[in-house]
Structures are given as C-alpha cells and as structure tokens.
Amino acid sequence: MNATDDVRHTGRVAEHTLILLRHSKSDWAGDEADIDRPLAHRGRRQARQAGHWLATHVDRIDLAVVSTARRARETWDLVSAELGERPETRHDEDPYAASGSELLHIVRSLGEELGTVVLVGHNPGLEDLAETLIGDWIPLPTSALAVIELDGPWRSAGRAPGLLRAAGRPPTA
Questions:
Q1: 125-134 and 100-108 are packed helices; what angle lies between their axes, rounded to 10 degrees?
Q2: HSE (CB half, 13 Å, CA atoms) of 43?
Q3: What is the set of domains in the chain, with CATH numbers?
Q4: pTM assigned to the model
Q5: Which of 77, 27, 69, 26 shows the shortest CA–CA distance to 50?
Q6: Phi, psi (degrees; rounded to nearest 5) at 19
Q7: For a designed S-S bond to 152, which of 71, 90, 140, 156 qualifies (C-beta 3.0 to 4.6 A apart)?
C-alpha cells in the first residue's frame, strides 16, 4: 500500500468492506505449540504500522473477527490500539488453520448490519479467500492488509468479484 491509497474517498459506495489482515511476524525461538507462538519484535512493530494505516485510511470498523492463535490476538491488540475507536472484537477458533472456503463461510455468516469487518488470520487461507473474492491472487506476507469492497449481502460474498481497494504492508514510517 502506498500513502496515497485512501479507501474513504473512492466515489463509489460498496455495501460492505472486508479487510483481511494477516497476523504479524511471530517468534519461532521458543518451543511453544503453533497456536501459542507470540509475536517477534519485528511483528510488534509491523502490527503498530498496520494499525496506523487503518486509522488513517478507514473511517470505521464495525467488527474484528480474530483467530484465537496468540500471534493473531497480539497482532489485533496492537493494531486496534492505534485506532481512534476500538471495534467490537470476536475471538474465534474457526479462522485458525482455516482454508479459503472455510473463511468464506465465516464472511458469508456475518450480520448485514456490519458495514466494515476485519478478519485477522493466517495463510494460505487468507490468500485463498482474497483470490476467491477478487478473482486474482495477491500476496499477503505477515502484517499485510487487503481492503476489499463487496456489493450485495455478506451471504453472497465471492459470487461476484469484489473490488480490491488496497493491498500490501503499510509503508514504513
């Protein structure tokens, strides 16, 4: 993403916006189980940068659906600390190790009252979901964001291509 990407002033009104956020860089130094791996120092810095980008470029987030993996929860804690208003957060076991089709099921089950939702999860599921939603593969390295506008109800996500508004890691400060 570059600093000129601004998803607030697009001239187009989508029914819903889905923001995919891959967890930040985790620390492999310990012998924790995969689900219990914490963030590395670099990951904590990346998460704050992602949060700053969201605070600058997205007006409102209604809900965050966050994998219960420690690195995903820590990522969201740091990201959401940068936001002016912290959205409701739902910690969910389902995004952990989920396939793209399993993540699509999560998206399709969202309530229609939710305009903008962040899904904090893992690869390869997030990259597969992004490809399903926009029709093109995009890389989502650690701390990468993909902002996707969707027309129609959440339950029809993936049936028509969404519009990718921004993707990548936030610029370094």
A1: 60
A2: 22
A3: 16-168 (3.40.50.1240)
A4: 0.91
A5: 77
A6: -110, 115
A7: 156
